[in-house]
Amino acid sequence: MATRSRDGTVLETKKSKVKPPPLFKVVLLNDDYTPMEFVVVVLQTFFAMTREKATQVMLKVHREGMGVCGVYPRDIATTKVEQVVAYARRHQHPLQCVMEET
Ligand code: TYC
Fold first, then answer.
1. Ligand 1 center to 73 CA (angstroms)
2. What local confidence, expressed as pLDDT, does residue 4 receive?
3. 20 to 30 A Cα–Cα from 31, which one of 5, 16, 72, 96?
4. pTM as predicted
């Protein structure tokens, strides 16, 4: 679409081609060895959950195999995954945390 002002200037409007940045889910996976209490502490520490919310999410992962901890831009999701995995390994737990695009 073009609009012409009185002095003859033509203004073209153009549809933006800029897409919003992709978002990533940070997902916790179940395993048979990581203690429930440790997972609750991880969710409180790295995902700012209350103890009640962290317990709900931990139990969902325990029963259903996986659960979403949060949704973030790529860099933040990458950092969360690295922090959780490093913390779990430091405590010698096999807890797995991955990210997937929404
Ligand atoms: N399944 C574990 C247990 O019974 C608890 C657990 C929950 C482990 C969530 C990992 O992401 C996890 N001790």
1. 26
2. 61
3. 72
4. 0.86
